């Protein structure tokens, strides 16, 4: 029926090697370019990507993983499942972007994490009114483009099971998966059209099958793929999984009539060689890590591949997932020194590794001996580098973690902290203040060499002076310095710690047009000198009120970096924690009495499978406690959490044992307080009473109302008053007005206690 292929990747980055797509999309939104120009930029990026992949030697190339915003939104558009509220927008591009970002009259779709990656997708809303209908123009259009270019194109679409499992049901209840039979004819039609247009293979992504799935869900998947396989007019079907093991879903898929299955052999532990049904399938083995930046141990990967050779029908080499999650190419990094550089592989280099491995399989290892040996010596050099094995550091951690990781009892601490002299319902903010034009100009001027470090310092201090004065004027109780010197809450620390390095151009898409440049954590983490004390003590010198020191926690630093893969994450977390701990001790010695250690990403690293979650939460909590237990009882530790549904981590929040936890709550009516009560949480808590995600200024009455709701769940002695998150994305005027209202509402509530 088809020819198999030997070397592929599951998807490609799309934001552009120099973030061309980001710039074009933003220019289109701002009205600076028209739709034709935007679409032409997209087409040029696709064409370049395909020709590079072909030149590298892939013999099957994913087509359709390009997106102007998000692949799940593309799927919703393809299936006629955009929300009703955008249906009236005539222009398809405007309609698409309205669903993504909202406009003056419609709210956007919600956004959430794409499995356990740092990519965020838009959550389709499906209601009983949704009438699915196929719009095949995107997959067909991109297929035609690729074929015109002579590319061995393999269209990629998100599968119906994953699409429904990731969507949100509105105005109805019951599992959305029940509606799969409405989607089946659309996929059948699409497969027919793709075959007609010349596709030999189609890749249907079903990453949702690597999570904990019920037997019923797996049975649905099995039935759907049996039905699709039974079609006569269709390409060969490759069902792709990634981000973990398929587990029971693997034999179920293998029992269907599909031709191929892609398995993630990096994040997952499936053993395709032991699944009898695979003896007649094309297995696409994801042995090259698609979401981390390390060079592959080719010898080890080859070993894995060879064990599969005799037991599966045919074999192709691939990345473990789409290359969406890594930067384009190392070639854009001129500042990277050896041997560090030799340890890495970004998108283009990983593609090369796939081809090398495929060549070794087809022509023997000798055909690529040079590449395999070069890879081997890089892997060895990394393994043996002393920067990855600091025995003194490791001994220090062992000594610190051999006992308990905790502090004194909460009551003892509470008494010791009474000296802070705080009023009931203390008011505070989360750390950052608006990033003003002056701050941005100063940063740019420093980068361009127009001002020197001393002048930059002077300007940041003046900014801190303004922020402290503003807080005093507003009457807040616990002040912050405002974080003007920080570009980013992780990068700022990564830049000052040993064991990390920064890339110049290592951008990856976070969502839509937003890109991040995660630091690379390659070695043992050490803090050569204090990172924040100078700033915080300067702020403290300007006021008699306590100033909170502001640090990022170990889990968040890991979650927003590329991390080493040669030791358990828990070990790396403890190293970062130790650096933060040393910083808290220095802050305390410098006279700072309150220190906040932010962990907004606590939930982000939560494993997909329930069986692995507790172990994660244990080490995550342990790292936080290591970071925060070096200070005296009289030093008050705060933490801050946001971006999440806290459900699965609520017990862990209590486990952090921070004296005060500020937590996002304004939009969810203080619900989190009830959840915290249920797990016996009895420490200080500041549920956000000002939603900083919106420019709206909350009124005094509204904040008062929220405080009353909070007081229904938490006694006044434990309640703090603060916004939901940092203020850096907001404007000065609206934050000033909002904080003024927050202080006033607190006064009113206090007066009636
Ligand atoms: N302290 C940080 C700030 O205020 C916290 C940011 C966050 O939670 N994402 O900006
Ligand atoms: Zn936050």
List the defining traits of the structure above.
TIM Barrel; alpha/beta; binds glutamine; UROD/MetE-like_sf; 5-stranded parallel beta sheet; binds zinc ion; repeat; 753 residues; metal-binding
Identify the strand order in the major beta sheet.
1-5-7-8-9-10-11
CATH topology of the largest domain: TIM Barrel
Number of DSSP-assigned strands: 20
Number of domains: 2
What is the CATH-assigned architecture of the largest domain? Answer: Alpha-Beta Barrel
Summing up helix and strand content along with how strands pair, one would put the structural category as alpha/beta
Distance linking N and C termini: 78 Å
Taking pLDDT < 50 over at least 5 consecutive residues as the criterion, the unreliable ranges are: none
Mean pLDDT: 96
Approximate strand percentage: 5-15%
Bound molecules: glutamine, zinc ion
Keywords: Amino-acid biosynthesis, Metal-binding, Methionine biosynthesis, Methyltransferase, Repeat, Transferase, Zinc
Function: Catalyzes the transfer of a methyl group from 5-methyltetrahydrofolate to homocysteine resulting in methionine formation.
Family: Belongs to the vitamin-B12 independent methionine synthase family.
EC number: 2.1.1.14
């Amino acid at each position: 029926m088809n020819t198999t292929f030997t070397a592929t990747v599951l998807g490609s980055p799309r934001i552009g090697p120099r973030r061309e797509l980001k710039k074009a999309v933003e220019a289109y939104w701002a009205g600076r370019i028209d739709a034709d120009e935007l679409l032409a930029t997209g087409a040029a990026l696709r064409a370049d990507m395909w020709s590079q992949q072909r030149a590298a030697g892939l013999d099957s190339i994913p087509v359709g993983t390009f997106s102007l915003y998000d692949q799940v939104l593309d799927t919703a558009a393809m299936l006629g499942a955009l929300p009703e509220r955008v249906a009236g927008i005539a222009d398809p591009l405007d309609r698409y972007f309205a669903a993504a970002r909202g406009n003056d009259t419609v709210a956007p779709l919600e956004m959430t994490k794409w499995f356990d990656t740092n990519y965020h997708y838009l959550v389709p809303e499906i209601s009983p009114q949704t009438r699915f209908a196929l719009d095949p123009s995107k997959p067909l259009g991109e297929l035609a483009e690729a074929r015109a270019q002579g590319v061995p194109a393999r269209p990629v679409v998100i599968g119906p099971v994953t699409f429904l499992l990731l969507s949100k049901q509105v105005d109805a209840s019951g599992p959305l998966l029940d509606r799969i039979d409405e989607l089946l004819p659309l996929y059948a039609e699409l497969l027919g059209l793709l075959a007609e247009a010349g596709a030999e293979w189609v890749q249907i992504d079903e990453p949702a099958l690597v999570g904990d799935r019920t037997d019923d869900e797996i049975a649905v998947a099995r039935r759907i793929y049996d039905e699709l396989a039974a079609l006569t007019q269709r390409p060969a079907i490759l069902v792709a999984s990634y981000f973990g093991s398929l587990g029971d879903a693997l034999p179920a898929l293998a029992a269907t009539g599909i031709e191929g299955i892609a398995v993630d052999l990096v994040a997952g532990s499936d053993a395709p060689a032991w699944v009898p049904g695979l003896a007649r399938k094309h297995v696409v083995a994801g042995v090259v890590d698609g979401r981390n930046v390390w060079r592959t141990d080719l010898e080890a990967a080859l070993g894995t591949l060879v064990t599969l050779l005799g037991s599966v029908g045919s074999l192709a080499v691939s990345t473990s997932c789409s290359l969406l999650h890594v930067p384009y190419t190392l070639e854009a990094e001129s500042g990277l020194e050896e041997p560090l550089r030799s340890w890495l592989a970004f998108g283009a280099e990983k593609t090369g590794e796939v081809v090398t491995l495929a060549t070794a399989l087809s022509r023997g290892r000798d055909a690529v001996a040079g590449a395999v040996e070069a890879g081997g010596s890089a892997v060895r050099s990394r393994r043996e580098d002393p920067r990855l094995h600091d025995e003194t550091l490791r001994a220090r951690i062992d000594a610190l973690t051999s006992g308990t990781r905790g502090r004194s009892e909460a009551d003892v601490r509470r008494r010791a902290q009474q000296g802070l002299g705080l009023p009931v319902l203390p008011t505070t903010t989360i750390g950052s203040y608006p990033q003003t034009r002056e701050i941005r100009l100063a940063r740019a001027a420093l980068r361009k060499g127009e001002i020197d470090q001393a002048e930059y310092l002077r300007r940041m201090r003046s900014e801190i002076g303004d922020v402290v004065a503003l807080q005093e004027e507003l009457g807040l109780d616990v002040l912050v310095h405002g974080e003007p010197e920080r570009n980013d809450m992780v990068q700022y620390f990564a830049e000052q710690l040993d064991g990390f390095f920064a890339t110049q151009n290592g951008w990856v898409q976070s969502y839509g047009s937003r890109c991040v440049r995660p630091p690379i954590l390659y070695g043992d983490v050490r803090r050569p000198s204090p990172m924040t004390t100078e700033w915080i003590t300067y702020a403290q010198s300007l006021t008699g009120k306590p100033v909170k020191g502001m640090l990022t926690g170990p889990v968040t630093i890991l979650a927003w970096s590329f991390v080493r893969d040669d030791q358990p994450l828990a070990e790396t977390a403890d190293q970062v924690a130790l650096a933060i701990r040393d910083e808290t001790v220095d802050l305390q010695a410098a006279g700072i009495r309150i220190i906040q250690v932010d962990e907004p990403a606590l939930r982000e690293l939560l494993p997909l499978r329930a069986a692995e979650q507790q172990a994660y939460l244990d080490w995550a909590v342990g790292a936080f406690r290591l970071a925060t237990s070096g200070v005296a009882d009289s030093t008050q530790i705060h933490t801050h959490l946001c971006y999440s549904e806290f459900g699965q981590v609520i017990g862990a929040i209590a486990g952090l044992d921070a004296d005060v936890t500020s937590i996002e709550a304004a939009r969810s009516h203080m619900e989190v307080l009830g959840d915290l009560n249920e797990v016996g949480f009895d420490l200080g808590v500041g549920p956000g009473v000002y939603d900083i995600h919106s420019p709206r200024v909350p009124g005094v009455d509204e904040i008062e109302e929220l405080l009353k709701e909070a007081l229904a769940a938490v006694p006044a002695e434990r309640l703090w008053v603060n916004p939901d998150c940092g203020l850096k994305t907001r404007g000065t005027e609206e934050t000033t007005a909002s904080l003024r209202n927050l202080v006033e509402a607190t006064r009113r509530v206090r007066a009636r206690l």
